[in-house]
Write a structure and sequence with these properties.
Rossmann fold; globular; 13 strands
Length: about 250
C-alpha cells in the first residue's frame, strides 16, 4: 500500500513540490497507520503497524525511517554523547539528520556525493577534503558497497577520525567471503549479483572487519539476533560494526 502511494505521488507530483511538501504528504499517508502498538524512535510517532515494504523492511510512514536507522539511533542514544563532539555523517536520511542535530554536537556535518540526500557538503569518501584527526564520530551506513575503491575510502575514514574516535559502519552482508567482480558492470548484472543496481560488491562481516583492521581500526562486532519487545520495529537479525581508531 505504502509503496503504491509513493509511486503514485512521484508520478503525479513534480519533484520540487514533493520535496518541499514531503512532511505534509507523509502526514496524509501516516494517518491510517496511527495506533499504540509501535513507536518510531526517530520521529516519536505511535503506530498500529509499520509500512511493510516489498523487501520486508518496516518503514515508518511518518518520517521514512527504516529498521537499521532506528537501530543505529537506539545505539547512539543509549551509549554515546554528542556533547562537544564533531560528527561526520555520510548520506543520512532527512529524518535521521534532523534527529541527530537535536543532540547538539559541537559540529555535525552531513555529506552526500551523488546528490540523492539533502546534505551540508559534497564529499568524495575516497578523498575526504578534511584535515587529519578532524572527527570524533563518523557514520558510514550503507555507503561502502557503492564505492569501487573501498580501500581508499576506509583509509580516509581512519585518517580523518581522531584517536579514540569511532566509526559506525553497516552494509548488506553475506556469509562466506566478500563477493566482487570488476567484470560485473551493468545495472542489470549488479542487481542480479550484488542485490542492487548500483552496488559493486557484497561484503561478508569477516571480510569487512579484515579490511578495516588492515588500516588500523579495532572493530567491535555487534550482533542483534532477536528482539523480545520489538516496540521500535527493529530488524531481528542485524550486524553493526563499530570501528575505533586507537
Amino acid at each position: 500500500m505504502y509503496e503504491k502511494l509513493k509511486k503514485l505521488a512521484i508520478l503525479l507530483v513534480p519533484k520540487k513540490l514533493l520535496e518541499r511538501y514531503e512532511g505534509f504528504f507523509r502526514k496524509l499517508i501516516s494517518y491510517k497507520y496511527r495506533g499504540q502498538k509501535y513507536c518510531c524512535n526517530i520521529c516519536d510517532f505511535n503506530l498500529k503497524d509499520f509500512a511493510v515494504l516489498s523487501n520486508g523492511n518496516k518503514l515508518c510512514p511518518n518520517c521514512g525511517s527504516l529498521p537499521r536507522t532506528r537501530r543505529l539511533f537506539s545505539i547512539i542514544d543509549s551509549e554515546y554523547s554528542f556533547k562537544n563532539k564533531t560528527v561526520l555523517h555520510f548520506s543520512p536520511s532527512k529524518a535521521m539528520a534532523c534527529k541527530l542535530r537535536e543532540l547538539k554536537a559541537k559540529e555535525y556535518v552531513t555529506t552526500d556525493f551523488e546528490g540523492e540526500f539533502l546534505a551540508d557538503e559534497k564529499i568524495d569518501i575516497t578523498q575526504i577534503n578534511k584535515k587529519d584527526n578532524s572527527f570524533d564520530l563518523i557514520i558510514c551506513y550503507h555507503v561502502l558497497e557503492h564505492i569501487k575503491d573501498d580501500d581508499s575510502a576506509i583509509s580516509e575514514l581512519y585518517r580523518v577520525l581522531r584517536e579514540g574516535g569511532k566509526c559506525f559502519i553497516q552494509t548488506p552482508f553475506k556469509s562466506g567471503e566478500i563477493f566482487e567482480n570488476d567484470l560485473i558492470q551493468t545495472p542489470e548484472d549488479r542487481l542480479l549479483h550484488f542485490g542492487q543496481n548500483d552496488h559493486v560488491r557484497i561484503y561478508s562481516v569477516e571480510g569487512l572487519i579484515d579490511r578495516l583492521s588492515k588500516v588500523g581500526f579495532k572493530v567491535d562486532r555487534r550482533e542483534f539476533n532477536s528482539v523480545a519487545d520489538n516496540h521500535k520495529g527493529l530488524k531481528q537479525n542485524e550486524t553493526v560494526l563499530i570501528a575505533q581508531k586507537e
